């Protein structure tokens, strides 16, 4: 008989035999939870992973740490925003296809709306000081949340000195030697596989959840998802996904011409969605070069301001492409009203950027689930999981440098490639808010939303006082 676990908030019991049910948690409750998570997704992928780790693994106990790590490792292998893909994966585990669709959509929706509003303000009035001041309080607060995530994920995932060493090496490779992200992930997978052959006891230790005194999670590590992989299912999802992905671009090509800004943006950002390995930072330099120099959609200074706006709004950083498309379509409306053109360009770009994320997860997740028992693959993914701790730490460092200092400079010493801050450009307000957030998070164990709310209020007051 399948074991029975009860929802941590007192709802109906759910069977551990996931093959026999569709919803591990009530769908309405899952929707409310994903909406709450979507309002906290500041700070790039590090902050977003931190929020999901805290809400889903530690507080609600909906998914086990090892299962969370396994899903995250797979998402790290894919192009596109890994945090959003992780939300789709976990949503699919909890509530099937509709759960993945809701989780992934809600994950990006607040960011879409916020950046659209900021784009309107930028084009219409050219002054986003008040809103930027509000978000100025959020960026430093996210650092405390990310730091907590690095410590918690590391404590639960790095259960052997060899895995700790791999995490440290991954951090150094990215932060000190500027090794490309795909190379780090591939090397971590290879090292994990080799370790499993040479030192299998590493993975015997790593198979546990680490220090954890809480009740068992609803989605544990020893049950299968109810949806088995089949070629028929994969072909159906692939065909439907490609049609849904391409349909808006085909429509604007038919109605506005193949050379219109909408068609150009749709095709260009469809291409970038397939090559964003390593997160947004890895591809934004190319996007900036093409958008500014080749297409002339915006100026270099506007690209920087768009990136700053994207960093201080919820959702993946790649959302900056929406700002790029908004300005480009507004200035070249192809016979439409400029405002209508701007919204159309922004929404098409958002669509072609994020639809592939759903496609990758719905196609691959059932196979990844069935391969969890494959020791070679599990060892490789465990290596990636260790590297991910270093990746999150590196993202936190990058975010801290650009939050605490106005300018940074690249320094090359032989094989070393460092990003150092200009100490004269330190932002005392950001440092102060980060310290307050750290006290609230670590000393008083405040919730993420409560901490973000207090820090946002401080940033707003500082902006009104002319200090931000």
Automatic annotation (TrEMBL):
It comes from the Bacteria. Signal peptide: none annotated. Keywords: Cell membrane, Membrane, Transmembrane, Transmembrane helix. It is a multi-pass membrane protein. The chain crosses the membrane at residues 101-125, 131-151, 163-196, 234-255, 267-288, 308-330, 342-365, 377-401, 422-442, 448-467. InterPro entries: Chr_Tranpt_l_chain (IPR014047), Chromate_transpt (IPR003370). It is found in: Cell membrane. NCBIfam families: 2A51. Belongs to the chromate ion transporter (CHR) (TC 2.A.51) family. This is Chromate efflux transporter. It comes from Actinocorallia aurantiaca. The lineage of its organism: Bacteria, Bacillati, Actinomycetota, Actinomycetes, Streptosporangiales.
């Amino acid at each position: 008989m399948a074991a029975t676990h009860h929802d941590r908030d007192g709802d109906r019991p759910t069977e551990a035999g996931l093959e026999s049910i569709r919803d591990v948690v009530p769908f309405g409750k899952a929707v409310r939870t994903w909406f709450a998570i979507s309002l906290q997704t500041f700070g790039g992928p590090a902050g977003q992973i931190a929020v999901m780790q805290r809400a889903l693994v530690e507080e609600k106990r909906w998914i086990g740490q090892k299962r969370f790590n396994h899903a995250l490792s797979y998402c790290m292998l894919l192009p596109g925003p890994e945090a959003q893909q992780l939300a789709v994966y976990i949503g699919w585990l909890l509530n099937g296809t509709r759960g993945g669709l809701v989780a992934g959509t809600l994950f990006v929706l607040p960011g879409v709306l916020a950046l659209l509003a900021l784009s309107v303000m930028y084009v219409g009035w050219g002054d986003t000081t008040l809103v930027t001041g509000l978000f100025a309080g959020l960026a430093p607060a996210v650092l405390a949340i990310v730091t907590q995530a690095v410590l918690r994920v590391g404590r639960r995932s790095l259960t052997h000195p060899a895995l700790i060493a791999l995490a440290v090496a991954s951090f150094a490779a990215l932060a000190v030697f500027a090794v490309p992200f795909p190379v780090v992930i591939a090397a971590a997978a290879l090292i994990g596989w080799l370790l499993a052959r040479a030192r299998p006891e590493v993975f015997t230790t790593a198979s546990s959840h680490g220090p954890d005194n809480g009740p068992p999670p609803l989605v544990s590590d020893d049950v299968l998802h109810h949806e088995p992989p089949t070629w028929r299912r994969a072909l159906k999802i692939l065909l439907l996904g490609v049609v849904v992905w391409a349909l808006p671009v085909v429509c604007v090509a038919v109605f506005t011409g193949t050379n219109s800004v909408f068609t150009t943006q749709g095709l260009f950002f469809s291409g970038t969605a397939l090559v964003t390995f390593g997160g947004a930072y890895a591809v934004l330099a190319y996007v900036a070069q093409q958008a500014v120099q080749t297409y002339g959609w915006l100026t270099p200074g506007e690209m920087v301001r768009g990136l700053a706006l994207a960093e201080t709004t919820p959702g993946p950083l790649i959302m900056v492409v929406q700002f790029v498309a908004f300005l480009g379509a507004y200035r070249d409306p192809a016979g439409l009203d400029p405002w209508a053109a701007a919204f159309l360009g922004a929404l098409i770009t958002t669509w072609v950027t994020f639809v592939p994320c759903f496609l990758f997860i719905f196609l691959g997740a059932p196979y990844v689930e069935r391969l969890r028992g494959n020791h070679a693959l599990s060892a490789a993914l465990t290596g990636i999981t260790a590297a991910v701790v270093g990746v999150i730490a590196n993202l936190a460092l990058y975010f801290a440098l650009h939050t605490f200092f106005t300018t940074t400079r690249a320094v090359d010493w032989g094989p070393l490639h460092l990003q150092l801050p200009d100490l004269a450009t330190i932002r005392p307000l950001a440092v102060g808010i980060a310290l307050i957030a750290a006290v609230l998070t670590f000393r008083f164990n405040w919730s993420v939303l409560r901490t973000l709310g207090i820090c946002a209020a401080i940033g707003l007051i500082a902006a009104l006082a002319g200090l931000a």
